[in-house]
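User: two proteins, same treatment. go.

Assistant:
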Amino acid sequence: MASAETKNFSSPDETREFKGKGRAEFLTVNGRPVSKGTFEPGWKWSVNLRPIAQTDSCQVEHLGYVISGRMRVVMDDGTQFEVGPDDLFALPPGHDAEVVGDETCVLVDFGQVGQYATPPAS
């Protein structure tokens, strides 16, 4: 049986800065990474994370909950949708995303975020 474990994002295990306009803070709980992303107005995956990920679109699977702000997601097939406060979302690999409006978007991601905002392995 796994043991109980608590952590707090005020003391993250790791912080990964985007190429401007935000960061992702990570906690590992019972061996599973969880991130809290802070995406500032003007942030766009293809501008601020593509240089880090070195892929044409985001290849991370996300399972997230939006705390504040709004984000627009554009799938590789052209499908678009927005998420905002109190929205829970599941997002497969193959997308771009951008902050909508002038409010910072903050969300918690329980998806496959272990390698999010890191360069590809050599």
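Protein 2:
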Amino acid sequence: MTSLGVQLHIQDHHVVMNNGILQVTLSKPGGIVTGIQYNGIDNLLEVLNEEANRGYWDLVWSKAGSIGTTGTFDRIIGTKFSVIVESEEQVEISFTREWNHKDENVPLNIDKRFIMLRNSSGFYSYAIYEHLKEWPPFNLPQTRITFKLRKEKFQYMAIADNRQRYMPLPDDRLPDRCQILNSDFPEAVLLVAPIEPQYKGEVDDKYQYSCENQNLQVHGWICMEPQIGFWQITPSDEFRSGGPLKQNLTSHVGPVCLAMFLSAHYTGEDLVLKLKQNEPWKKVFGPVFIYLNSASDAKDSSPLWNDAKKQMMNEVQSWPYEFPASNDFPPSKQRGNVSGRIRVRDRY
């Protein structure tokens, strides 16, 4: 573990955070994670993708009165960059996009934040969404963070102790290698000519890898050569919709790693956020932690998974974090506690 302090390098079109353990590059002022350098690999993210399609916040929204759980997809691109905290102990940077009535975007002010701490093998991200009272009403079915990793390196996926395996390649979902089982559900495909023959006859569907919120605290991918783990850690459920039994997407063929915040999956329209006329609203999503680890034994992935679970417990025990600089994220001294039992009496 290095003692090098956190360094921030601001370039014409990129911003680089580096603490000697990893280096994270983001577009400026867009706030897209374009590169993650770690353990001798120059970029863990998919270098075959365009920079805007590697690590990003996104949302789905629709106009007020719309029915259903779909809408317009919006990859959130910032228009203004600023430095919030810069010291050897911590860097926090901000990428904002403000709404005006000429925009066709969702009527929200969005502030995406990224944090790197000294001696930390990872980085944090959170965002503040704000809707002013005088702005138009709208629906928000989904928002999340998406990371797309290098397919030639990350082929082993881990969601739980009993849900781990080598995964098919994204190429196996191309039209000449798979068959869509139902046109209404294009996510589910039969692998008929996969690159690796052992996957032939399997059905791949990202919804197979969903998990209840109460068990969805760490998941990710492992690269075997060299042995590297890429993990998405969610230390609290307070910013996720649906409660502990609500299922959310995790990781899936891509290789894709997700942090889901709002989602109507498995529930329908009842869980679509619907902001009404003259309704002000502000919400902090996150922070979540992107954790990286490494090991020397290329034959066994369990040390990386076990270490990721240990790190997850450290993050849970540290919640609520003290380091986010936004006044919209209340630290522990500004929060109360509720304890006790809930008794439900109904006709059953």
